[in-house]
Amino acid sequence: MKNNLRRYLVFMLTFAFVVSVFTPVISAEDNEEGETNIVNPLPISEIPHESNYGSYPYLLDDGVRNAEEGGELSVKEVNGQLTLVDQNDNPIQLRGMSTHGLQWFGEIINENAFITLANDWDSNMIRLAMYVGEEGYATNPDVKDLVYEGIELAFENDMYVIVDWHVHAPGDPREPVYSGAYDFFEELADHYRDHPKKHYIIWELANEPSPNNSGGNGITNNEEGWQAVKEYAEPIVEMLREKGDNIILVGNPNWSQRPDLAADNPIKADNIMYSVHFYTGTHNGTNESYPEGTPSDARSNVMANVRYALDNGAAVFATEWGVSEANGDNGPYLNEADIWLNFLNENNISWANWSLTNKNETSGAFIPFILNESDATNLDPGEDQEWSLEELSVSGEYIRARIKGIEYEPIDRTPKEEFTEVIWDFNDDTTQGFGLNGDSPINVTLENENNALKISGLDPSHDIGGEGETYWDNARISSDNWNGELDILGATELTMDVIVHEPTTVAIAAIPQSEKYGWANPSHNSLVEIEDFTQQDDGLYKAVLSIDTAASPNLANLATDSEGSLLNNIILVVGTEDADVIYLDNITVSGDREAVPVPIEHDPQGEATFPSDFEDGTRQGWEWQGESGVRTALTIEEANGSNALSWEYAYPEVKPSDNWASAPRLDFWSDDLYRVDNEFVSFDFYIDPIEGRATEGEIEINLVFQPESAGYWAQSSDVFVIDLGKIAEQPLTDDGLYHYEVEIDITNINVSDDTFLRNMILIFADNESNFAGRAYVDNVKFDQSLEKRVEELERIISDLEEELAMIESANLEKITEFEDRIKALEIQLGEQADQSNYGELQQTVVELQNKLNTLKYEIRELEEYGDEKSKSDFEDNGHSTGEIKAPIKDDEKNVLTLKDKLNENKAGITSKGDVSSEKIDGQVLPITMTRMYNLIFLGTLLVITGALFLVYRGRKEGMK
User: Fold this and answer.
1) Which of 105, 195, 549, 602 is the least buried, fewest Cβ under 10 Å from its Cβ?
2) Cα–Cα nearest to 918, from 947, 891, 885, 871
C-alpha cells in the first residue's frame, strides 16, 4: 500500500513538473493583420463591462493637475518602477489630445480651442504633431510657426506641450527628409532656454519609426531597427541635455509598439521615456508580461511590450492612441479603450489621444463633413469656448469624459427629423369622434360648424389658472369614438387653433392616451390670452394654443416610449374667461423622431476586376472608401459609348479645413494588385456639371495604395489637376460630357515592382471649386510611359521588317529560279519542235509567261495593299496627329510604316501623351497573310511547272 502511494505521489509530482516546464505563460494567435496577440487564460477583454467602478476602477478620479501645479517634470523610480513625477517627486499623469498633422489641420491652433481643452476638457497636456514628410515641415517650413504659436497657447493655459517631430513616411528617422531634426530641436531649445515656463515643453524625437518605405527607407521590427533609432536620437538627446532637463520621448520600431526593445538597450540619459502607440480596435490588452528570456521576435502584443518595458527599467508614455482600428477607421471600440485606459491610469502612464481633427475617420474627435449627412465641426469653438457634445464625435465625447475622469454618458446620436401631423382637422363635417367625456363636471355641446369643432355651454367652465392643477372644475371632452391611431414617438408639442367671437383667455389641459398610458394628471393649463388673437377675414379671432411635454406628462410618456406611443384618444379639459362658445381646429402633434434614411441603392459590386472597364454592368469591386466625404449611389452609366462607374455629388460652399474631407474617395481591393513594370495608373474621367456649377477652382485627383509593407499608405506625389476655370476649352464627347484622360505617375511611390499593393484609392479633392453634377470613371488600368511604348513598338517593327525582308529574299530567289527554268524549257522545246508546231507551243509559253507576270503583279499588289491598309488604319486611329492609341499587347498587328510615322512625330510626343487601349485591326502584312502568299506562290509555281511538263511531253510524243 505504501509503495503504491509512493508511486502515485512520484507520478503526480513528475506530471506537475512537466506541465510547469512545457506550459507557456503566454500563448499567441495571429490576428487579421498578421500580428501576434497575447491570449490570456482569461482575456481581460472578456471581463464583463458592468460599471466603471467595478471591473475598471482606475477610469474615474478627480482629474489631473495642470502644469502650474505639476511644475518641472522628471523621471524617477516610484515603487520599483520608473515613472513621470512632478516638481515634488510625486507621480503625475498627463492626459490630453494630439493634433492631427498641422500642415492639414492647423486651424486647431487658436486661443478658443486651447482654452476649451484646458477648462472644459480639463486637459493638462497637448501634443503638436508636426509632420516632416507628406507636405509637412520638409517642404513647408512655415508649419514651424504653428508649433511656436501652440507652445505659447499651452503656456497661457497651464498645459504641458509635446513638440512632436512626426516621423511617419518614410519610417527611418535617418532618411534625408528628416535631416533637419537636430537644427529644429536646437532652435526651439535655444529659443525657450530662459523662458520661465520652459519646463512645460516635452520633446518627442521620432513619432513612429516603422517599415514604412513610402518616400524612403523604413526600419526593421527588431534590435537592428531600434539601433537605427538610437543612432538618430542620441546626438539630439546629448544636445538637448546640454540645454535643459526637459522630458525627452523617443519612438521605437513597428510604429512605436516596441518599447520592450528600448528597455533591452536604453539610451543612456536622464529623463528619457519611450513612446507606445496603440489602437483599441487592433491591439488587444493582456494581463501578462513576457517572462525573462523571451526572445524579441516572440514579443508581439503591444500591452505586454509595455509591461515588459516597465518591468525592465524603462519609462513609457502613450503619445498616440485611438478608439478605432490602426487605420483610423471602424469602431469605436470603447470597451477595449476602457481596458487600455484602466491599465495606463493604474500604472501612471501619461497619454495623448489621436486626434483633434474633423477628418472623416473614427479616431477624429469632431464631426466630419459627409455630403447630405453632416457638416464639419469648426476647429475654433467660438467665443463661448466650448464645443457642444453634438459637435464631438463619439470618440471626442468619450475621450473628454476620460480626460476629466468622469462617467461617460453618451448622448443620443440617433438621426432625427422634424415632423408635424394634423390629427383632427374636422374637414368632413363631423366631430371626428369627439364628444362629452363621461367624467365632465360641466355639460357642453359639441358639433361641427364650418369645418371646426364647436363647443357650446362653457360659461360655467372658467378655471383659467396657468400654474398648478387649476382645471378640475372645467368641462372635459374626449375623442372616445375616434377609430384612428397615430404614432407620436418623438413628439414635443401639441397645438390647436382656438377660434372665438371676441378675444379672451382660453385654458386647455391635455391628456393624450394610448393602450399603455391611460391617465396622467396635467401639470397645469396651457393658455392663449387676449393679445394672442388675430382677427380673420370672417370676423372671428384665432390664436394657436401650444401644450408641451412639461404641461402634459402623458404627452411625454407617449413621446418617449416606443412601446406605448400609439395615440388612440385624447382628453381635453377646456376653460374660458368669458366665452360660452369656442371653436377648436387643426389639433396637431409635432416634434422630432428618428430619421428613416432613404436607402442608397448601388449597382451590383461584382467581382474585383482589373483593368476595370465596367462592361459587365457591375462595379467590378469598386466602392466608397471609409473616409469618403461622398457616399451617394454608385451606378453603371453610359459615357462616351461605353459603360462607366458613375455618381452624383457636390462640393460644399463652406469648405472644411481639409480639402480631402469633402472628396469622393473610390476604393478598389484585389488579391492580385501589383505594379510590375508599369509606370502610371490611367483612366478616363468624365464630368457632367449642373449649369453654372463648374466655373471656379480645381478638382485634384490623388492616388494612394495601402500596402502593408509601406505602413498601409503609399501616395503618389503626382496629382492630376482639372482647372474648372478652363472647362470651356475641354472637348466634349458626343453625349455632352467633358472628357479628361487622367494619367498619374506611380514611379515616385517607393515600393518594389513585386510589392502586393492590397488596395488603391482615388481621391477627387476640392480645391476651392464650385462643382456640382455627375462624374464618371472608366478604363482604369496600369500603363507604361509613352517612351517605353515607343521603344517597344520600334522593337516589334524592327522584328517585322527583318521577317518581311527574309520573306521577300526567299521569294525573289524562287522567282529567279522559276524564270531560269522557263528559259531552259523554252530552249529544250525550241530544239525539239518542228516548224509546224512551234508556233502553237510558243503561244503556250507566252501565255504561261503572262501568267507569271500576272502573279508577280499580284504579289506587288498584295505588298502595296498591306502598306496602304496600314497607313489608312494608322491615320484612322489618330496617329497622324502624333497620338498612339494601341497598347503594347496588340503591337504585333502594327503597320509597316509605323516606324516612319513615329520618327516623324517623336518631336511632338511628351510624357503626358494621349494613350488609350483601343485595338487596331489588320495592319502590316500579317503572319497569316504571309503564309497565304507563300501557298499561292508555290501552288501557282507547281501548276505552271506541271502544265509545261505536260506540253513538253505531249509535244515529244507527237514528234515520235
Assistant:
1) 195
2) 885
Cα–Cα nearest to 705, from 676, 667, 741? 667
Q: Is the dihedral of CA 867, 872, 874, 879 positive or negative?
A: positive
CA pair distance 146, 106, nearest whole angstrom: 7
Backbone phi, psi, residue 687, to 5°: -130, 145
pLDDT in tens, 68-80: 999 999 999 999 9
Average pLDDT over residues 247-262: 98
CA–CA–CA angle 74, 77, 79 (5° rounding): 140
Per DSSP, what are the bridge partners of residue 402? none
Report d(CA 737, CA 437) in Å as an integer.
68
What is the residue whose three cell numbers read 502573279? 855
Of the pLDDT bands very low, low, confident and very high (cuts 50, 70, 90), residue 838 is: low
* Alpha-carbon span 952 to 960, nearest angstrom: 13
Position 437, amino acid: N
* CA-to-CA dists, residue 497 to 292, 391, 479, 491, 532, angstroms: 81, 37, 17, 18, 11
Position 324, amino acid: S
Which three-class secondary structure state does DSSP give residue 33?
coil
Could you give the angle at which helices 786-832 and 927-959 cross, rounded to 10 degrees? 0
Spell out the SS3 assignment of 202-268: EEECCCCCCCCCCCCCCCCCCHHHHHHHHHHHHHHHHHHHHHCCCCEEECCHHHHCCHHHHHHCCCC
Tell me if residue 68 is catalytic: no
Write out the E strands in 50-131: 74-78, 81-85, 95-99, 125-131
State residue 735 phi and psi, 5-degree precision.
-95, 20
**Among 107, 208, 361, 391, the one annotated catalytic:** 208
φ, ψ for residue 261, nearest 5 deg: -65, -40
Q: Which of 321, 292, 308 is nearest to 347 (CA)?
A: 308
For residue 372, the one-letter residue type is N
Catalytic annotation on 32? no
C-alpha distances in angstroms, 549 versus 419, 434, 520, 565, 748?
Answer: 16, 22, 12, 14, 63
Name the grid cell of 437: 367625456
| Whole-number Å distance between alpha carbons of 936 and 775 | 55
HEC assignment per residue over 94-108: CEEEEECCCCCCHHH
Residues in the chain: 960
Cα–Cα distance for residue pair 649/855, rounded to 1 Å: 66
Return the C-alpha cell found at 111: 486661443
* 107, 243, 520, 884 from 397: Cα distances, Å: 20, 39, 36, 57
Nearest CA to 448 out of 433, 437, 460, 461 is that of 433
869: DSSP letter: H
DSSP class per residue in 748-800: TS---TT-B--EEEEEEEEES---EEEEEEEEEEEE--HHHHHHHHHHHHHHH
Instruction: State residue 891's pLDDT score.
Output: 40
How far, in Å, CA of 331 to CA of 395, rounded? 9
Cell numbers found for residue 371: 455630403
The pTM score is 0.67
- Cell readout for 350 is 501619461
Q: Are 307 and 325 in contact (CB under 8 A)?
A: no
In 3D space, the residue among 487, 494, 513, 522 whose CA is nearest the CA of residue 570 turns out to be 513
Dump pLDDT digits (tens) for 780-826: 999 987 676 667 667 777 887 788 788 777 777 777 777 777 777 76
Residue in the block written with cell 489641420: 105
Are 640 and 687 a contacting pair, CB within 8 Å?
no
Q: What cell was used for 448? A: 361641427
Q: Which of 320, 325, 627, 698 is catalytic?
A: 320
What CA–CA distance (Å, rounded) separates 699 from 663?
Answer: 9
pLDDT in tens, 513-565: 999 999 999 999 999 999 999 999 999 999 999 999 999 999 999 999 999 99
Amino acid at 467: E
